[in-house]
Design a protein that fits this description.
heterotetramer; A: 494 residues; alpha+beta; Dna Ligase, domain 1; 4 domains; 8-stranded antiparallel sheet; 5-stranded parallel sheet; 37% helix; 23% strand; B: 166 residues; Glycoprotein, Type 4 Pilin; 1 helix; 16 strands; 5% helix; elongated
Chain lengths: 494, 166, 494, 166
């Protein structure tokens, strides 16, 4: 029985894991860097250990420091979240040798599926279709010219160990090939300590569709349905939804079956995601398998009424999944908007600074997974995602209306956020109609930016005027006077 | 007090008529507003019974104001600047043309040019790494690299000048 | 088609209605008193009209002012929420005469069922069992001595027009009868403009169970299942849950059928609630029908995946309910805690003052319906309910753990709130076991108060010491120093 | 600096040993704490790697501190008061026995007693109406009504004295 879990992560995912642990009566151990002293994962955990300076290679990626906290705290299990050490096989092996439970994929599965080349080999062996490209990593950039030519431009250069758009480049012509491979390789080396890259065909109007699976030690492999993740900027997802407005029941079934076939092939355990690309002709290809919890897992949780982190912990503890494949009957529609500290009007440039004010989203059908607290400084050291905003409603139309309502209510003051751009995407005809692909956001971005700020209303003008007037030392009382006190006293309290 | 507010290509002049009650004038029309501060950066405004729930933020010399429909990003000119602009003088707040600034704190991991290089608009100048992403900075114009203020491996603060083009 | 709704209410219920209107594309008109200038219902509505001084009879109960706002704003419908004008037949008739849609019960139904005496008559006529007592209001307190004697003490004195514990008194002996009737009558007169009261038997270990119904103009009457509302203080509900841990399928079916029978008998339309008392022998009695939306409606919404306000609006617009009785298959378990500005340690005394800080609840399975914003002054003029916190989980055990988790995370600083007492109730063995009745809270209250504060931890002691030290003018830097800035610069940003 | 903290019937003495680093002593044991203010009334404390997320509020001369398990309601005595209490002097902050105060702002809608009335503990004294509820205030002790400070219809502020019993 797991009694105390060290969460080797930060931000919203650490908070999300701590919450389920609390609900299961499991003690939690947080680790934090200089920059994260008042991050919510530190505030909400039972214990918190400082593990170093702000750069992640000096803290969250420092295996030795985390090993020593495991020892000092007496944690009997580790949940790595996503990113950081979640797919670090050496770390997983080391803790398991010490008798600590690893709440993650088996190291063999991470090795096989985390590496795109061997993952593609597994797919091939199991007759799961693959995107044309090099299956082996590129040894010498010069060797790929012929392959690229045979596939046809544009092609994609991708990191072997990668994910999240890092170490990825689109190449439109032969002349950019060498430089793009070098750039992707260098970025991949820094992000994943593995600089190997490969190339593959770049598809027409592709959809990024992924299948959530769960596998336990009792031989159960369950598909929890798909997530549509095609709204992306710079290869990073920004809005996800389930069910996908694009795929049909037949395709859904095929993808689920393929995902489970791969999970079985690699003796998978725990929560995993199999990603596919589906082109405009509904022809689909295996893309990669993420051998960990995924950022966008909440939309799957909501439509299925389950808690994936609870299942992960129970599976790691040797228990079976708490439901069967027949119990999986998704209800309604869920949409997630990732709230990034990024300026959507300015090519998604990261934005930093203190969270000076916050009006939280709330009300029916709203789930907010925050990784920040008012007063906290958003730093340039980590991923710019502040929170995940998820809504649920009976159908897609109502879910969009709800997301629109929530985005229009909530306010985060301080860093520039993706709230305005999410609002514009949600309201754009492409998203509304459900006809969009991974290229859509890039194509409509100028239009969205144009839409964002059309007029200067008297309300906006007057607020600026007032603030400027005050800046000149002319003070106007801003606070609400307690008129109720005087009027109340006058009139009695009836 | 008069201010010129600019958002993208759209400008209006707004005049403070009275501070209590708070009355402003835009395009010869007066508006009386009920403005209440709620907390640090949140405001409630009521204008002709229309309710506006606004967040206000100053960042990088711009004003960001969100209501339930729009995000406004406003640049301000005061009376002096309005007069100067009438005579064709640019606002002093603008960046000098040809200066390349760091848009975010980060690390210069690669330089693609050296002083004296002749470049065309779009040519990659350097890589600025921040928040785990490599951001390629490209030339905003054709020109010649005049001066480079950093070397590879330097970390830069937001707004630091990286290089100059002429 | 309804295009613009005036919400004749304030606080969380006004906010909750505004949210659904926004999601339906309907414009919203708020009304506010002096005390409510920055209440969230004012902030979130499209339009806001000041209607008078803080005391509710000078604002929210001022029919003429609200009528004039309806006219000025061009609203084509009115949603009254609960309380205030929600059961005011004259108001409902007046606006309907002017062609405005009333999003509430038909005035005949309000008249019949809102008045407890005629409601009991309807129940009697439809063979729905009634608690022994006077069916007619008390004309002369002296007349009831004999009836009280025949029923047997303790008895309950209740307001004819009442609800929410106002105008209600338990009488344990003949000597208190006259005074209690007078007090209840006076309170009822102020609260409901109707000072008539009646008496009834006070039951053994009674459960307060209510059935949510929906009725439309197409002849559909649907039961949405029960809510268990037995955790009460001073006759006011504080925690509700669904399904009830006490009742079984047979009883559930009987209560639902009786509720629908009554709805049909009074030609009901819209959302309504039929309340029952169920004694320890599972013998049940009709208590009253609330001809409006109920405070605790969210738990029914969550387990059924529906939006009751949306249904109300559609029904008022002449549309049918969006689902059938067969579609009603409640999923999982929901619990609501009412967050009152009340001191649970001090006999639930109301507490007022500014909300000076707020850490909102969030994460999976959490719904918060807030009626306040940070910076707002909580005044003595209105109901002390600040918010409703609702959680959903697969089963009762997990829902309790989740509520416990959320109550331990969230913080409201300013007025004293019911958060600590809710936490104690949730963790008490009576609640955990599901064996509780309407008398339970009163019985366990001393124990809960004892449990709340057992020790002074070093952390509490040190924070007080630090604040006192600062109060003496000795300043210690409290803010987080930007160590990341210096360390970050030193080490590079890798 | 030494303070005596009292919660219900439980008291501890706490001494400030150092303000930076922040070290306190309770029952001969020293604790070094890392205390950080997050926002207006929220604090993060770390003590021996235990994390405490606290809200702090001062209200009616009491300190309310919530962590994830408890709500603490603390009464403070300073050094002088500790010394006085050793000699049997009561804290000056306590209410005088026999004074009936309004526990919340409200309206006195009914008085059940008049000056000179002899009453027993629990006897109803008056009705204080607030937040739409009629709150009956009962005698905390046996005694005689000495003085009544209000008449029916008066509104009272929180803490106002309503009547005195002796």
């Amino acid at each position: 029985m797991i009694k105390k879990i060290l969460i080797a992560n930060r931000g919203e995912i650490a908070v999300r894991i701590i919450r389920t642990c609390k609900e299961m009566g499991i003690k939690t151990v947080a680790v934090y860097s200089d920059a994260d002293r008042i991050s919510p994962h530190v505030l909400l955990a039972d214990e918190a250990y400082h593990i170093g300076k702000s750069p992640s290679n000096k803290s969250y990626l420092d295996v030795n420091k985390i090993l020593s906290v495991i020892k000092i705290s007496g944690a009997d299990a580790v949940h790595p979240g996503y990113g950081f050490l979640s797919e670090n096989v050496e770390f997983a092996k080391t803790i398991q040798k010490r008798g600590i439970i690893w709440i993650g994929a088996p190291t063999e599965a991470i090795n096989t599926m985390g590496n795109k080349v061997s993952a593609r080999q597994v797919a091939k062996n199991n007759s799961v279709s693959l995107i044309p490209g090099t299956i082996e990593p590129i040894q010498n950039p010069k060797d790929v010219f012929q392959i690229a030519e045979s596939i046809g431009y544009p092609i994609l250069v991708k990191a072997v160990g990668g994910g999240g758009g890092k170490g990825m480049r689109i190449v439109y012509s032969e002349s950019d090939l060498t430089q793009s491979i070098e750039r992707a390789s260098s970025e991949a080396g820094k992000a994943f300590s593995d600089s190997r890259v490969y190339i593959e065909k770049y598809l027409e109007d592709p959809h990024h569709i992924e299948i959530q699976i769960l596998s336990d030690t009792h031989g159960n492999h369950i598909s929890l349905g798909e997530r549509e993740c095609s709204i992306q900027r710079r290869f990073q997802k920004i809005i996800e939804e389930t069910p996908s407005p694009f795929i049909d029941d037949l395709l859904r079934k095929e993808l689920s079956e393929s995902a489970i076939k791969l999970a079985k092939a690699c003796n998978y355990l725990g929560a995993g995601t199999v990603e596919f690309l589906v082109d405009k002709y509904k022809k689909w290809y295996f893309l990669e398998m993420n051998t960990r919890l995924q950022v966008e897992h909440p939309i799957t949780e909501i439509v299925n009424g389950i808690d994936l982190v609870r299942e992960q912990i129970n599976i790691a503890d040797g228990k079976p999944i708490s439901f069967t494949q027949n119990d999986v009957i998704p209800q309604g529609h869920a949409i997630e908007c990732r709230i990034y500290a990024e300026d959507g009007l300015n090519n998604f440039q990261p934005s930093i600074g203190k969270i000076v004010d916050y009006y939280p989203p709330s009300g029916p059908g709203v789930r907010m997974d925050e990784g920040f607290i008012k007063g906290q400084e958003i730093t340039p050291f980590y991923d710019p995602m502040l929170a995940k905003l998820v809504v649920w409603s009976n159908n897609r139309k109502e879910a969009i209306s709800k997301m629109n309502r929530v985005l229009s209510e909530m306010k985060i003051v301080g860093p520039i956020t993706s709230i305005p751009i999410c609002r514009e995407i949600i309201n754009h005809s492409s998203f509304n109609s459900g006809i969009y692909c991974t290229h859509t956001l890039e194509a409509i971005l100028p239009e969205l930016v144009e839409n964002i700020s059309k007029e200067i209303t008297p309300s906006v003008a007057s607020l600026i005027l007032k603030k400027q007037y005050q800046n000149q030392g002319k003070i106007i009382s801003e606070e609400l006077s307690s008129t109720w006190l005087t009027s109340g006293r006058k009139d009695g309290l009836e | 007090m008069i201010l010129r507010l600019t958002q993208q290509n759209h400008s209006i002049d707004v005049e403070l008529i009275s501070s209590s009650p708070f009355i402003i004038k835009i395009k010869e029309k007066e508006y009386q507003l009920d403005i209440i501060k709620i907390s640090d950066n949140l405001y409630s405004l009521i204008l002709n019974n229309q309710s506006w729930f606004l967040s206000y933020n100053e960042k990088d010399n711009k004003r960001f104001i969100s209501d339930s429909k729009y995000e406004s990003i406003i640049h301000i000119q005061n009376e002096l600047e309005i007069v100067l602009s009438k005579f064709g003088f640019a606002s002093t707040e603008d960046d000098k043309i040809g200066e390349i600034h760091a848009s975010i704190p980060g690390l210069i991991t690669k330089l693609f040019v050296k002083a004296g290089d002749k470049i065309t608009k779009g040519h990659p100048l350097c890589i600025l790494e921040a928040m785990k992403m490599e951001n390629e900075i490209n030339a905003p114009m054709d020109g010649v690299i005049k001066l480079i203020h950093v070397i590879e491996g330097n970390s830069v603060e937001k707004g630091n000048i990286i290089m100059e083009i002429e």
